[in-house]
């Protein structure tokens, strides 16, 4: 299974966003993780549709949109129109999750289901064959730069086992507090898509991204 880096532009310097995204692409990152916050589902507000329209398709990167918004069904069409390739919605934010997944698939996009640290992976069981990607939050959503919650590793292991038992090869993405120092544990547990904000955008971006790529080669 391919290992992919998804830099979260939440931690980028927006004055020079294009240059920083180019460094991510040059280093080998294939996804761009796009954190949308509504001030309701999470306390913060980040950025949204006009910014996605501006960065979509940049350097051929896959736009991995993480919607931290209440009732995301209201905005699926708008984010698809704006350039989302993967639409991640929170299990906790959806009234009718199946309807949201159907809407994303109806637009020909990949659907991701995201769970917060306190949500058990077992809630995903009815949806294992309904999404192309599952995102396990390893910090409380809403803020970059937090510490990885160690119990996330068990959740990753459990989810990968549940998928394998059914012969499913969905992507398993992990978001929050992942650094060069702990990414092997996350990969060993069964994740294959790594979101990284601080550990890419703090310091030398090209070096940081290349460091992740070197580690991915071990797998
Ligand atoms: C948190 C976001 C994350 C975050 C990751 O709500 O979903 O994508 O920016 O940042 P780091 O890697 O700094 O924990
Ligand atoms: Zn995210």
TrEMBL record:
A single cellular component GO annotation: cytoplasm
Residues that coordinate or bind a divalent metal cation: 33, 35, 66, 175
SUPFAM superfamilies: Ribulose-phoshate binding barrel (SSF51366)
Cofactor(s) listed: Fe(2+); Co(2+); Zn(2+); Mn(2+)
Alphabetical keyword list: Carbohydrate metabolism, Cobalt, Isomerase, Manganese, Metal-binding, Zinc
EC number: 5.1.3.1
Bound cofactor: record note: Binds 1 divalent metal cation per subunit.
Catalytic activity: D-ribulose 5-phosphate = D-xylulose 5-phosphate
The protein's annotated pathway: Carbohydrate degradation
PROSITE patterns (alphabetical): RIBUL_P_3_EPIMER_1
Catalytic residues identified in the record: 35 (proton acceptor), 175 (proton donor)
Protein name: Ribulose-phosphate 3-epimerase
């Amino acid at each position: 299974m391919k290992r992919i880096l998804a830099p979260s532009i939440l931690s980028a310097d927006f004055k020079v966003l294009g240059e920083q995204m180019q460094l991510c692409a040059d280093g080998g990152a294939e996804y761009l993780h796009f954190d949308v916050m509504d001030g309701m589902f999470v306390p913060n507000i980040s950025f949204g549709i006009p910014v996605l329209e501006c960065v979509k398709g940049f350097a051929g990167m896959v736009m991995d949109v993480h919607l931290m918004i209440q009732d995301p069904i209201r905005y699926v069409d708008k984010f698809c129109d704006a350039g989302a390739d993967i639409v991640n919605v929170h299990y906790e934010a959806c009234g009718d999750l199946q309807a949201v997944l159907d809407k994303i698939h109806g637009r020909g996009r990949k659907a991701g289901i995201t769970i917060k640290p306190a949500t058990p992976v077992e809630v995903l069981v009815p949806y294992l064959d309904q999404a192309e990607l599952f995102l396990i939050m390893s910090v409380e959503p809403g803020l970059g730069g937090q510490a990885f919650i160690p119990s996330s590793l068990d959740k990753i292991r459990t989810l990968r086992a549940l998928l394998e038992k059914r012969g499913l090869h969905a992507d398993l993405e992990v978001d929050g507090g992942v650094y060069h120092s702990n990414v092997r544990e996350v990969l060993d547990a069964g994740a294959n898509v790594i979101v990284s904000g601080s550990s890419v955008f703090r310091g030398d971006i090209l070096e940081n991204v290349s460091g992740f790529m070197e580690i991915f080669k071990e797998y």
